[in-house]
């Protein structure tokens, strides 16, 4: 439509506000309360314009109408704006020079208005008396500087969907408030920082994490990707090159995160500058043999609950090592590994890559193990996370990745969240889940733990731990009985339906309800909600996969989607939420013992030949050992030498006491990492590696989005890029590797795959591309896969029915509780990074075990008590936290704390298909610590 | 005992009789005949046309044509439509709706039924200000009686029309008298007025088309239906037909509520009906229509009390709450009281309202204390001017107008304070 | 804790509105009638019952004058001090009552019996000065009458 703004005829799109239309035409209208990402509220009134009515209209709210004549800058309006600015400035803290936002970022929008209108609030009596709130670890709240624009409230409600901030009172005395008007640090605020990111004044400003905050234009902006979880949020680091320091991070526009970040992404990057970074290669001193754990924590000699802040005491561990040159260290590594290979055979070697490393590094590492070592004994932490899901997906639909993105939930009628604590583990994805629910998607949460996302659920079912198969079989029984399935889809696109129907017929809700501890009618309600939705997505996490029957759990979810025709259309699909930032990519790149890059079987002769010719080496025809199998083999002595790049199995693998023995038993261990980890205490050689912040590479998120991470810092000391180290080791072991850049490595990797074939560093663009992508020059890539056929031999997906079986180690009189383990919002896996970030460590400094209050009182235990948790494999002492989030009869421990390692207790039994260990179910007892 | 010295009346004709508040007593005086007539003999469109023709203006302050407002409701729509009775009377100086609620709840319900039928509303929410406990009890009792007798419910008066009434109590916030603030409050939220468009007739209560009318407005409707538009136009002026309820307070001999035709001269109301100024003193100024309306000085009391004539004097009829101030009155103190009220009652959304009301009050207090400076008068006018016509709702205007009125007619009072550095009005009412 | 009786009344209120949030004001009146004020715990509980976020309930509690977020004395006696009442001596009366009860406006008496307050216009302008004691209006007051009303409060 045509409208006139300030005498200029302008074309405005239908539904555009005057503010948008003016902006598109390059006409600047000052505004304070509006942010393009938020629903406009029109409260600051600075953007008022004359549309020929009695009352001036707020441009941010008022929609264009054909023929509208708008005037944005009459002298009256400008005078109005000057008075508004004057009113607001008179309430601001008197010292404008000291304004926190202006000093930190140079972008205080109110001060910009003050300069524009030369209005400094001096004509009015100055306000005052509103207090600061310094209770948050990440944000300084200055109520006096607040202009009640409601941006923070809307950012919290509409973007992060946390609903923590509101207004208290009314009129002149209104203030922003957190929860029930408690200090920010005591509220349910999750410190995502979205409020501070949108605040236009000095009211909500980030606390400096690294060096003092500085205006953007004094810093270099580097577009990158968050190093933490599989959501892979796009962000920008603002870097002080001279001081080699990140000053702050900020969310970046991308289809994935739309500028949103969580506390880890926004505030958790200072680990890279931690003084404990490794700077030179280290070789174990002769007097530090025989090998074994060096620190008390790792030796397991705990003497009661430790104080918070359990990073490694270098004084305890460094004396066991001496500094070496790279040449000496690399020669030693090459010589010792070669010796084992030549003496004991290639399968006496094994390697752990890492899902924290890039696609390029993952590809090179598996190439090193396969082509240079000559074994398929290469794996990484996918084994500990979604190996069972991938096994079930490959078997059922012929592809191990997600069939649709998490953002597609916006199109879903229903979404099932199974065994996933998304608000902690995929925080930004969770914001989209909550948003979808507000817009009408029915949210179904099934989990023994009543996690935060359950509060947003339309249906929440608290199943007993380990009863997932029975629950989902019953859902399918109801769907079949009530004919809610998609007959056409089943007939045209699947096979083996009859076997499924036969099996689930034995799981009527009455029987399953008794197993799961859920009312039969609740199962029916959930089945109907899911089965009758036009489209439905299944999301799942470790609650499904980390079990000895994890593959069966995933099979049920896949069958549920197939049964209801929920794959291959918008708002429908299967989405195992991937944990690590590059667990998808590392798996795609072949860091898996059974498959080469792109899931091509090592046992298929034709494929093997392809890789043999590409790499110029004869390759092993046998699938290799998985993570836990390698540890077992080390203990038995069949694996003698290991190269561990960026993994920390001492804390991440089950049954730590066994892992300790296994690592001690290795003839030779080289650990390449950025810190001296618990695992590195067992190393013969430690190589100082590059952190995420220091290198270029690609990372593939849970959505299959391949994005570029860029270097923002110089490496400390003599630390080197991981890919170069891998090349050097390989070359010294007689298999020369020589690449000019990560981009060249990517091209070699992509050329050996279908999924990545069209992609290159040059065409990934600002926000990356989804794989597979037929036309990356023009297209972002397909959100929904398999709208036509599945990548199986006959193009059909397969129902794989699964019987429910009880967990391996059931509670009994001696060990009456089920132990569940998992993650916290503020920490990452074994804590190597997050416990070395100031803010995250400050918010969550301490290990704990969580228990239902009724179990606490039944056992005479109170919140905050010092308790010992024991399993048949070990014991830890830590603080007790009572919370109704836990179900009766089960306790929960986070996995991040070396001083109270959850994996001392866990069971190292494996799922037969996915080879994933049982992290979420073992029997323990809890007693007051002596 | 209630004092209602009605003068020319139909609304308040029977207010001296307690029985008028009961269903039986109300019907005895002919009550519900108009509703019966409308619901059984008239088409909804005819009712709207009749009310339009009567020229009935809304009695809540804005004075918009009631029939026209009803006609904005979508006629054919398959979503529920709602009617809301604004009984959140909070405008200082106004108490007419309270008396109507207490004395004649069935008169209100009858008006509501007719209006609901006309606009096709399934439910009416009567939003009564929280402090009005007794009036709300009366309305609840009347609603229960009406349900008992089939005057409400699935088959109103046997006509086949279904209607429900929900009595909703506010909780103490002036801004909920603003119709969209009221709707927010009705939905269980803070009473922050909504951005318009959309208007309530499009998106109103609970997202549905809604008409909001004032208590008194509804009360006139049965008489119009019974006696016709022409009869109604027999009262008042051409542009402002009918009677209205003038509440007179302040320094008069006989404060009270007077039902008089619109257009009655202000001087007649003050000096005849309200008995003139108490203590034989002279009048200094009169606020003619509730506290939001600019004050008139003693020399302008000849003005007829109808919007068309009051506008010429720079003020408005508002809610008809007339506040009379005698010669002892310090107009700066008046400004302090008024600006404190608006500072306290702004919802706090729009900048100039939240900040402006605070500053107006601060500066008023400073002048009254004797600490004012000569520039302060200019600042007051500047801020007031910038609060006008720019905000989401008219509250900021309502806060600005009285300040402008005081400075227009009583600037000397302010200047005297500044000059002397103290308040010269020793006999004025105490702050 | 919100009693089961009050809870069922709240649930009944929720049925009366097209959207259950409409019942928030009635629900707050109900919990306030039960507890005398709306505590933080009550806010959380009510939010849970009504499917709201606690912050949304907090906003409403603090927006409206008739809801209290801390314990209250047994009685509230508030004199209207808006213009029509002030013109007829309301502020003088209030000051005298402060002296009479021995407590300032907003400060509860030591025995927790009473708090004096001032109110904005209560719609009794022709019957000034007036005072609202709990839910009841007392109009056309003089000092002696007002004192006797306060003295009679338990």
How does this structure look, described?
- The complex is a heterotrimer of chains A (930), B (431) and C (154).
- Chain A is α/β, with parallel strands linked by helices.
- Chain A folds into 5 domains: 2-73, Ubiquitin-like (UB roll) (Roll), CATH 3.10.20; 97-273, Alpha-Beta Plaits (2-Layer Sandwich); 282-298 and 320-384 and 582-770, Rossmann fold; 387-576, Dimethylsulfoxide Reductase, domain 2 (3-Layer(aba) Sandwich), CATH 3.40.228.10; 817-928, Barwin-like endoglucanases (Beta Barrel), CATH 2.40.40.20.
- In chain A, the strands form 12 sheets. Chain A has a 7-stranded mixed beta sheet, with helices on both faces.
- The longest helix of chain A is centred in the middle third of the chain and has 19 residues, at 326-344.
- The model of chain A has no long low-confidence stretch (mean pLDDT 95).
- By secondary structure, chain B is of the alpha/beta class.
- Chain B folds into 3 domains: 18-233, 3-Layer(aba) Sandwich (Rossmann fold); 243-326, Roll (Ubiquitin-like (UB roll)), CATH 3.10.20.600; 331-420, Up-down Bundle (de novo design (two linked rop proteins)), CATH 1.20.1440.230.
- Helix content of chain B is 43%, strand content 12%.
- In chain B, strands 6-5-9-7-8 form a 5-stranded mixed beta sheet, with helices on both faces. In chain B, strands 3-2-1-4 form a 4-stranded parallel beta sheet, with helices on both faces.
- In chain B, strand 5 (243-250) and strand 6 (256-261) form a beta hairpin.
- The radius of gyration of chain B is 22 Å and the shape is globular.
- Chain C has helices at 4-16, 24-35, 40-50, 54-63, 83-87, 90-101, 143-151, and strands at residues 75-80, 114-119, 131-133, 136-138.
- In chain C, strands 2-1-3-4 form a 4-stranded mixed beta sheet, covered by helices on one side.
- In chain C, helix 1 runs antiparallel to helix 2, helix 3 crosses helix 4 and helix 6 (90-101) crosses helix 7.
- Chain C starts with a helix and ends with a helix.
- Chains B and C meet through strand 3, strand 5, strand 9 and helix 13 of B and helix 2, helix 4, helix 5 and helix 6 of C.
